[in-house]
Amino acid sequence: MIDIRDTVDCVRLAVENPAERGEFRVFNQLTESFSVGELAKLVADTHPGTEITHLDTPRVEADQHHYHVVSTGLAELGLRPHLLAATLITSMFELVERHAGRVNRAALLPAMQWRLPGR
Fold first, then answer.
1. Which phi and psi angles does 89 have, rounded to 5°?
2. Which domain of life is it from (predicted)?
3. Domain 4-107 class, CATH top level
């Protein structure tokens, strides 16, 4: 996850602090990470009456991913992140509720099963 303000700040920091000639740098542009379950719980805890429905994953992949991203370079250049907070989630509820009628709820559920029958 990354706040849009932090995205802009990351670009600014990279431009203001260019790599040395011949140096290759990669900046992982994120400030925090969450599982889908963690995000669902954060929303449910913030919005009373929200229920979390657990679905079987249609995907074929490990429960835990082997890749552990490191995001220190931009912080070392001075990035001061805006972390996801309950106040941001709360501020989005009015917008979401206003446009809820435009959501095709059937399109939110997985329609594809990547697993072969019996596996």
1. -60, -45
2. Bacteria
3. alpha beta
